[in-house]
Amino acid sequence: MKIKIKKYNKGPIISPEISSELGQNIQGPSIIKKPTWINNKLGKYLLYFADHKGDHIKLAHSNNLFHSWEIYKGGTLGLFQSNFLTAPPEIP
Length: 92
Fold this sequence. Notes:
- Strand 2 and strand 3 form a beta hairpin.
- This protein has a domain of 53 residues.
- By secondary structure, it is mostly beta strands.
């Protein structure tokens, strides 16, 4: 397998200034090249991330790794869909 790495040093690829929907504490951004089995008109690259205090996983998409990321409105996976704890547990 051949892997090519290029450092992007012009600041964050995605930041809270892009959209008020993003929150102020972006966590865990992960970029993938869109698999061929995904049949939609989103960009060639998909960027998944979340706000540290957010209620869903967010998605941005682009045809260029280094600019023009568009936010997928409404997010992709709600916290309530994840089976993770969403409220403080009852203490006996």
